[in-house]
Amino acid sequence: MAQDPREETLNRWLNCHQGIVYKLVRVYADGSHDRDDLFQEIAVQLWRSIPSYRGEAKESTFVYQVALFAALAWSRKATRREREVPTASDQVEQSVFRPTATPDPRVEWLYDRISEFAPVDRSLVLLLLDGYSHDEIASLIGISESNVGTRLDRLKKKLASTPPPEHPQ
Amino acid sequence: MNFSEMKLIWDSQENQRLFAFDQDALRRSVDADARAAFRDLSSIELGAIVMFCVLGTAALWDTFFNGNEYFQLIGVTIDFLAAGWLLWRRRVREAALASRPSTLVGIIDTAITRVRTVISRSRDLAICFSLFAIYGLVIRIIIYGWPGSETKTLITIVGLVLVCLSVVASERATHRPRLTRFESLRKRLVSIDQDES
Q1: Residue B22 and residue A163: Cβ atoms within 8 Å?
Q2: How much is the ipTM here?
Q3: Is there a contact between A110 and A155 (Cβ–Cβ < 8 Å)?
Q4: Which pLDDT tens digit goes with each residue over B33-60?
Q5: How far, in whole angstroms, is CA B142 from its chain's centroid?
Q6: Which residue of A87, A129, A157, A162 is the best one to mutate when testing the B interface, meaning the one whose CB has the most B CBs within 10 A?
Q7: What is the DSSP string of B37-72?
Q8: Are the beta carbons of A43 and B29 separated by less than 8 Å?
Q9: Please, what sign has the CA dihedral across residues A163, A164, B1, B7?
Q10: How many residue contacts between A and B have a Cβ separation below 8 Å?
């Protein structure tokens, strides 16, 4: 049976850019249930955004932007969610999307440090680590380039203030 | 440590597959969610069945021993019909869901059916309650006349409708997100299956 083109696009995006999604989920959500929830939220937002993708930006940039805004919006609702009574699935400890490789403690350390920042600061560091330039970050997030530069300088100093764990042998 | 070293650490994760789709965890999660949704419905439904039976029996007792009017018998009939209808729907639902599917998509389909049932049943229960309340109001008007004024009657009826609508709305607010989550999971699972085949 032929797959719906929109479904095909979503599937391709989630497969090709799973790294982007995983990084955002890891940085913005804490705990297996929240991570599954954010993953679903990002998938839903990507699904909704498919008709608006005209191919003007790089596919990865578009996916990054949609997923990032979904993660930011999701984290804003975090306080409200904390007040909600947990559902039965909250008690399922194991995440639906589990890591496959033994995590490098230095990468985990980086994730943990980034997770300590404010939501917008997390996105700045993520984008910088993923190789985006200051002006690309500015247009993606919607703040001025000088603001991006100032914030990133401060964040880099914060990141550098704690030494990472030893490289695993 | 400077930023370029951090970037090297960061980039080291690019070459490994970051996560896998854990079907067992999903199966447990979906099953737990669907069961929780059903437990809510089950207790409300059981409470309604017991309530209709008690009210029906009390009204029947009153009709025979206190020689009340014919409309009390109509009330008895409505009570027992409502209880019987709820019980029958409960049995049909249990029978339909008795067989446990073996595939994950099957489990999600079952969960979707369960949550849809919860949503539609909450609407049925609201209708049931409102019919019962309207009947009570009509009886009251027949016996004692209009409760004070027409405005008061209108307010009572509007209040009843609002209570019933809020029952439906609260059920939808709780279970609709669950349904969306299951449907999106199903979509994702089916696309993964298609990819793998």
Answers
A1: no
A2: 0.77
A3: no
A4: 667 767 777 777 788 788 888 878 877 8
A5: 34
A6: A87
A7: HHHHHHHHHHHHHHHHHHHHHHHHHHHHHH---HHH
A8: no
A9: negative
A10: 104
